[in-house]
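To whoever is on call:

I kicked off a structure prediction for a single chain this morning and the downstream step that reads the tokens threw a length-mismatch warning. I double-checked the sequence; it's 238 residues and nothing unusual in it as far as I can see. Pasting both halves so you can look.
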Amino acid sequence: MDSLDDFMQTRPPTSARPLLGLTVLVVEDSRFASEAMRLLCLRSGARIRRADSLFHANKHLAVYRPSVVIIDIGLPDGSGVDLIRELANGRPRVEVVLGTSGDPDGERQSIKAGADGFLPKPLSSIGFFQSKILEHLPADRQPKGIRMLTDEVVVPDPVALRDDLTSAAMALEDPNDDRTLRYLTQFLGGIARSVDDTTLEKETEALADLQTAGQAVHSQVARVAAMVQDRISRSAII
């Protein structure tokens, strides 16, 4: 053991840290959402490993077998549904496979692919996060005694949100194909829902509708890009 983290992982779970001993792989492209997951794992006692794409997730999985994998549905290089299906059917199976998304249809897609459960975005409740993992673990992985449910929430660093917006703004300057634009639309829609930005959410939905209908999107892309730049500017002032 060469760190406090290694030491903590050898301890049995407790009521205060019910996920001690677990390694959680979070497959998430948003830095803001990933930061929320990091704080949730930290407060719960779990070790977290993060991947921002299917490619990097598979590199992680080739090296070690996590206890829990939490997979975002929309990823830059494909659908998280495919990874959920692969892990759900794998042998030996990962103990807990959960889908996550801000898309209202995300839960249906995750469960259909074989996920054990689903975490809707935005995710901030420590108690809810712990419960969704613990309900799928065997009895010998559960903390002993009575576990007090907490109503505490985590608040991700707003710098992570600004990083997400900045990355999206750069990509929106010249989306190189329809698939990239669809991904960016989904990505920004998820961010908007996570921070309750109903105006940006509405405009990304309008952009998605134009793409689905096969109509011209240039003016709407410019409108969304301008809104993203405005939010970056405001966050820098704050």
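Update from on-call: the warning came from a stale cache, not from the record. Cleared it. Sanity check on the structure: The CA atoms of residues 19 and 46 lie 5 Å apart.
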